[in-house]
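Q: What structure does this chain adopt?
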Amino acid sequence: MTFGQYFSGYVSFVKRMEAKFKALLDEASELPLGATAIGTSLSVHEGYLSKVYEKLNLVTGKKFKMEENLFDGLQNADFYIEISANLKRLATTLSKIATDFRILSSGPRAGINELNLPAVQPGSSIMPGKVNPVIPELINQIGYQICGNDVAITMAVEGGELDLNVWEPVIIKNLCESFKLLQNGLIIFANKCIDGLEPNEQICAKFANDSTALSTIISSIFGYKVGTKVARKAFEEDKSVKEVVLELKILKPDEADEVLDPFVMIYPQKSASIIKKYKKLYDLA
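A:
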């Protein structure tokens, strides 16, 4: 696959999370304001409930509304779990993306080295010239902390008793911390890591052309046994699939160039067209 295809998965995730948090905003606008102690609205002055939300919306510019059931609003804090769960969902997937960057940038000589991370510090204190993945590691640690916060929030919500949940201070403290960590972390991740990412084109091209995965299309045209034979010979003799295919006279040089172009394998319509063409050419359809 191309880096464009790979990163499209990241973009899709970000769009899904954006839509999710927008949906949560609407639910978050429901407040138990006016419920007083336990939801009975005891001692609320006449006309207060009809005016307080109108005034609140005027002052804040938001659209707050009263919860449909004020007893539910005071007794149950499950909405905090949903917010925290989605913060955790965002944080853990960002951490996974950061780990991908760390793996893909490992090297330069004893790792994958397909991706170049921007250098944001002088280097390793023991290995001159080494670029440490400090920003991805920061995102990993933010993810771990937010997972811990989520556990604390979950336990505090579960600990609610009867008419009230008296553990809201620990809920709010951990939620605020999770929001703040992500708010700051995302800006740093975008500005000091993602903006400066560069693919190592020479390494990527070499890996693509040397990959035994190219035998997959040989298998699709000439059958599984032929594909397996090519892959095994390429691996055992440290040759490219193209070298083996030409050596075994499976394809002519110009045919091998077309069939074993790595870009054929990344587009379904193109690979299907090539397979159909060569099955017909070699009377294998």
